[in-house]
Common plant regulatory factor 1-like
Amino acid sequence: MEVINRYITIKHHVDGAPQDSDFELKSSPLSLSLEPGSDEVIVKNLYVSIDPYQLNRMKSYSSSQESSAYAVAITPGEDIDAYGVGKVVASGNPKFDKGDIVSGLLKWGEFTVVKPGGMLNKLDPMGFPLSYHAGILAFSGLTAYAGLFEICKPKKGEKVFVSAALGSVGNLVGQFAKVFGCYVVGCAGSKEKVALLKEKLGFDDAFNYREETDLKSTLRRYFPDGIDIYFDNVGGDMQEAAVSNMNINGRIAVCGVISEYTDREKRAAPSMIDVVYKRIKIQGFLAGDYLNLFGDFLSTTCDHLRTGKIQPLEDISEGVESIPSALINLFRGQNIGKKIIKIAEQ
Amino acid sequence: MEVINRYITIKHHVDGAPQDSDFELKSSPLSLSLEPGSDEVIVKNLYVSIDPYQLNRMKSYSSSQESSAYAVAITPGEDIDAYGVGKVVASGNPKFDKGDIVSGLLKWGEFTVVKPGGMLNKLDPMGFPLSYHAGILAFSGLTAYAGLFEICKPKKGEKVFVSAALGSVGNLVGQFAKVFGCYVVGCAGSKEKVALLKEKLGFDDAFNYREETDLKSTLRRYFPDGIDIYFDNVGGDMQEAAVSNMNINGRIAVCGVISEYTDREKRAAPSMIDVVYKRIKIQGFLAGDYLNLFGDFLSTTCDHLRTGKIQPLEDISEGVESIPSALINLFRGQNIGKKIIKIAEQ
Ligand SMILES: NC(=O)c1ccc[n+]([C@@H]2O[C@H](COP(=O)([O-])OP(=O)(O)OC[C@H]3O[C@@H](n4cnc5c(N)ncnc54)[C@H](OP(=O)(O)O)[C@@H]3O)[C@@H](O)[C@H]2O)c1
Ligand SMILES: NC(=O)c1ccc[n+]([C@@H]2O[C@H](COP(=O)([O-])OP(=O)(O)OC[C@H]3O[C@@H](n4cnc5c(N)ncnc54)[C@H](OP(=O)(O)O)[C@@H]3O)[C@@H](O)[C@H]2O)c1
């Protein structure tokens, strides 16, 4: 059987904020039956993840493209890989059978042809919606878990600040930290988000950074006793303001710097005098280095979901054609929680 | 017996680069015999240490003044404490006897009256000149040792970059790293210093940063395979250039940022995209937190000095009146190795 596989690509490199005109929906015929002897797996994509780092892959150059196997440059015109959940429609690989639900590195498209060695695993949904396995129970969750517990090593009662706090990673950092026994304040870009943080997710406090003019004094207001841990999703001014409000032995997990992704000139210039005298640690990390924690992370998170200690927060759009606007909207703060595209029904 | 104790003070806060006119040599009478029942110790100062951080203490405000007991603000007109070596001339404290050689927190002056609870210890010179115990075998050495081994955790063969490499801390970082088996490049501010680094101290390579126009490409030239460890003494542009040349899992010990001490506006703005994707750690530290390592540090360093694996590098001026210019010259790169003032003969 042959289908028309529709997928998203970039028309050219994208060096500023992404726009509709940067993307193209392409289609090409795809045979769903494999050649005899093929060791490939054909996956029908069900859910794919939308993540800010994809923009760094789209740039004509970013040092990030050299530093991680997941972050390699995207070639204009070619299909784009992304984490997701799918269903096997044909398999020449003895580890997979037709009908298997799988997760791994799929494509921003309707189907993925996974070559041997590609990242693909059978998925046990454990009673949770499949979409969870593209977000909260996958890399977004692991990022929050590893960044908070391995990089920041919180102690009960410590004061934690999270930026992009209603985003996919941020909301979980805050929730994990609350369950662990920390005092947690988040920031986000709208009144509505602030209300959600406080009312739905149980953050101790939250503020809308767009309404603030002097972030340094804003943080002093929210943390009169200083910040012990800053989980940085945004970089730029917010990181500088956090550094100047850190306590002695403060830790900053630099998870991402989304405010710097769309603007090459933008840089955080944290006070290094503070870094020295307050013995601050500023540590970058990639979740992919912490796969050894995946088992722990998964069982902890599933427990918290079942007992209601953690709320899942998903923002799902439908159809491959909605991928570009979903990515674009991350940079406009128009997602609430994990942004996922539902490509097809199971 | 009464003497005239001469000591250095600042006339007013010092907010830019220090100048002669900021300082004053004061004198006041001091009785060298203690009142009956006094628990003080009177020390005749022999060697005192000259350190860049003193400038941060002299500022009208620096966040550093709040973050460490050693870094508290200096009040204009008052005497200034500094690490040093001295000889007890009178003691009401049963732990010390007249004639004891001691080290601890003394004054930038000819005598120190140490109150109970002050930092003072009997010193066993172990056959080394007393001046060593104000520098290489004291905080300068511990700073290099703790920063390199505890913060950066080098592996044999790793590539190490040190700035202010002919300074008190920097020269030891480079020498420790060489003995440990790393590849070491240093930078300093003159041709003569570069020659000393390569010829006398055994650095693998060295350069004069004042002759370079694009530090990022300079570092690429000296580290074609990237930097694993950057021991940062200067901050600013050099830190930025180092970050962009770091390898994956690179570590930066932020020991000090001397280029930022004299200029409030000056800031390092390292690429946080590099920090994330290359999983870089930027860690501030203070040697005072690593007193638990002092025993290890001391025995290792003494061994290396005895076997000639490490060269001591001291820059000694004489007399209390030379203290201001000694401090001023640190910020002009006019010291070679540990800057110490010899206040008096034993
Ligand atoms: N290190 C890793 O392994 C790893 C893994 C996953 C993600 N990340 C990073 O983690 C961060 C969050 O990713 P995510 O997937 O959870 O995305 P997300 O937070 O769900 O979405 C991005 C959010 O960032 C905020 N934002 C966008 N532009 C901004 C700007 N200029 N200034 C401040 N905030 C801005 C927006 O929320 P508001 O403006 O409303 O706050 C937006 O909703 C990103 O930097 C990403 O690259 C790192
Ligand atoms: N964290 C701690 O516990 C601790 C303890 C001791 C010292 N420190 C810090 O370590 C650093 C070195 O201290 P040290 O005692 O060893 O001093 P030092 O290196 O002996 O003397 C300072 C040297 O810094 C260089 N320098 C001065 N101004 C500079 C500028 N604007 N840009 C670049 N380099 C400049 C000069 O050498 P060249 O210009 O010729 O290279 C000068 O000789 C300082 O930042 C200090 O605050 C930290």
